[in-house]
Design a protein that fits this description.
about 270 residues; Jelly Rolls; 7-stranded antiparallel β-sheet; 20 strands
């Protein structure tokens, strides 16, 4: 499973084994059923596509087993799909870039984490950014949730009120010792919010072991606040945050992420 097979005559899908009595095994091609059997399956494949199997047990509304796919594609289709899944190319150069340090207020990011997690308090690291510039280091170990601490996190936080109206979004450079999903967060003023009058807006970015430039337009940020005022207002920015939690990395993960050139762009 997970492998690629070139299209050819005679390909068949076989599935089965020790399953509950009456289990219905369904073969899907590109998400649509193309064959099924009771407790076992043996059918000819109907052409190129992405195949997987679901096993459904009587009395349960959800599938009992969902397999990984098998890809039946020719070389040209495989290459097209591979390119579609590649890292995005570098973003178009913005017309204007402003670093946080060039704006009013503090550009300092401080480490914050829950009691079960750990972060290196040494955040500023001169010479570790692109071309030997200064970087901010998020060295972390994400703790496990407990009954008294259901949510665990590690973050770099800049708590500074700013007027970022007129800018398109946030820009920064990032690299890491591995591939992680990193939450980028903008907190703006919302008096109706239960989070100290702030609404938390999130977007995600991926890291790699090489420096990458990331541009996150304000229009891409989303909120889960039930008392949302409906829009991110950059002119009422109250904090900028880079955060890892159990939704972005596995509990127990230890790693290091470097950030540099944090600012805004038009």
């Amino acid at each position: 499973m997970g492998d690629h097979v070139p299209p050819q005559d005679g390909l068949r899908a076989r599935a089965g084994g020790r399953v509950p009595k009456g289990t219905r095994i369904v073969l899907l091609r590109d998400g649509r059923p193309v064959g099924e059997g009771e407790e076992t399956l043996d059918v000819a494949l109907s052409g190129a596509g992405v195949y997987r199997v679901e096993a459904r047990v009587p009395g349960w509304p959800m599938p009992w087993v969902i397999t990984n796919p098998v890809y039946v594609h020719d070389a040209a289709t495989r290459e097209t799909r591979r390119r579609a899944g590649d890292w995005p190319g570098p973003p178009s150069p913005p017309s204007e870039v402003r670093s946080l340090a060039s704006l009013d207020g503090s550009a300092t990011f401080n480490p914050e984490h829950d009691p079960s997690s750990w972060m290196d308090p040494a955040v500023s690291v001169p010479g570790e950014g692109p071309d030997g510039t200064e970087a901010r280091r998020l060295a972390f170990r994400l703790g496990a949730p407990t009954p008294s601490q259901a949510f665990t996190w590690c973050a770099l936080v800049n708590r500074q009120a700013r007027d970022l109206a007129g800018y398109t979004g946030l820009r920064f450079c990032v690299r890491a010792d591995g591939e992680y999903r990193l939450w980028v967060q903008v907190r703006d003023s919302n008096p109706a919010s239960a989070d100290e009058g702030l609404e938390w807006w999130l977007a995600s970015a991926r890291t790699s072991v090489e420096w990458r430039e990331v541009q996150v337009p304000f229009s891409r940020f989303r909120t889960g606040n039930r008392r949302t005022d409906g829009r991110l207002d950059p002119g009422e920015t109250r904090a900028l945050v880079f955060v890892l939690d159990g939704a972005s990395v596995k509990v127990g993960t230890t790693g290091t992420i470097w950030l540099s050139d944090v600012g805004v762009y038009r």
